[in-house]
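ok trying this again, last paste got cut off
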Amino acid sequence: MRATAIEFRLRMWIQIVIVILGFWAPWIQPSWPIDLGRRVALLEWLALELSRTGLVRFAYAAPIVIVAGSLVAALGTVLRVWGAAYLGYSTVHHADMQAGGVMAGGPYRYVRNPLYLGGWCMMIAVSLMMPPSGALFAIVLEGIFFLRLILGEEAYLAGQLGEPYQAYLGTVPRLIPRLRSPLPPSDAKPRWLAAISTEITAIGIFAAVAFFSWRFDNQLMVNVVLIAFLVSMVERGLISARIPTGVFVVATAAGWGLLHLRPLRAAIIALGIAIVVYAILPGKITSPR
């Protein structure tokens, strides 16, 4: 049940695949004899189903769903930013598991895995833009994948840190936060600006659900999330690979502004060009850490 080192290293890409499959939902085919759902956003579907119960009209059902989704997105964003502020940018994005010491500051006093819990909340928020069956697929599969990552990390940390981490395991719950922590406050200092830059995607998801959903334009919401994700990738690239990232930004702007390609298509083409540039760079020139 534990995730392997390869799964941990590729965790971002695995999550991207899950999200793409959730939006694509290739099993929804009108020609198939089995009805596996419709291509309508989950947000709209939930509002329709709620109004069909007769409890509220659709005019009120939609805002109820939006507010509920916004609260979930807000919880996820707070957990992600709060956890990243204490864990640090390099640890959050590191390709390998890290075991510098027992982290018991900030949200880690109340729950052992605030980043994964927050990430699952963000998946629920994003799923409001997916078809209902795609949303169910993404939420369940993401939950299983996160659980595998958690079990893998906990086994690794227990082996590396020994008794102090075992004591932490026995005190702090894995996923359901405690309202009060028996642990004393940590001396660790949060780095909020670094945390915000680490969680640009989460902040974008919250903005899409809490603010842009009121326009009832699902494509607009998806575009907001895509822009936040691309900004996050550019920001990460400027730290680890400046030249390919610069190529990506210039190629995207050229494709969109000069060739009049759609932003997503321009970004995809630019990403391919940047990957080629990165592959041919001598010695993989990167910026100092």
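PB: full thing came through this time. The domain at 5-206 is CATH 1.20.120 (Four Helix Bundle (Hemerythrin (Met), subunit A)).
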